[in-house]
Amino acid sequence: MLQVLNNWFIRSNKSERLWLLAKIEFKLRYYENKLGLFWALLKPIVDVTIYYIVFKTILSSDVPAFASYIFIGLILWNFFVESTSGTVQILNTKKYLYEYSNMNKLEIYISTLLSNSIGFFFNLLMFIIFYNLIEPASNGMNLNSIWIIVLFLNLFILSLGVSLILSCLYIIAKDVTQIWQVFTTFLFFLSPIFYKHSLFKEALPAFEFGNPIAGIIINARRVLMQGVNPNYELLWFDILYALILFFIGLILLNKLGSKAAEKL
What we know:
Blueprint: H1 2-9, H2 14-31, H3 38-58, H4 66-85, H5 90-93, H6 95-100, H7 105-133, H8 147-172, H9 176-188, H10 197-203, H11 212-226, H12 232-256, H13 260-263
Helix pairs in contact: 1-12, 2-7, 3-4, 4-7, 4-8, 4-11, 7-8, 8-11, 8-12, 11-12
């Protein structure tokens, strides 16, 4: 772990290199499509529409500002899934970067997540516009909304940690891709994305402390939609989860990452 971090800190021009890689990744993902960046917004819009029809119209959900409620949950969830699922094979698909350019492997992960972050903040901007200008049941936003920056950093580190773990496990077990797809489907329904927090707590008492994604979504709604401070206890739990997973990921990258080029 110390070797990976030391190698990271002694390199110069890290920020320029990271931003260049992130921009290239972003352009490859969106600019070759005719709709460009709109694709980043299209998925949550379609998902929101489907779940709104099912839960609000058919099942008569009584959650206030339900469209916005789903919207913010989905853009947080989609960032996590895209960042983790999209990096499972990264040591294989981007082997040329660390094998021939002597680039630090950690930079490759971070640049990929930074690329996803561009799409995330575009979606977040669309949410803010929708919630404040279109949502009939909006409570407006205030200074507590700034907490979303801390929550996103929490989500970023959590996603980075899980990405490191999954991609290192992929070196020794290729079926981790399929396992993670099944697990994220399971986790999706164990997160309060389209049902309210009270029902979530009633069905799964204290589970928001065992599921960091649930905690981040709950706190994001508190700061963006309710205009209150995050639940600090929940926030510290989620930050602790993220840091533990990140350090486990660094240990695995240090142990298995050096063997990636020869095994993949």
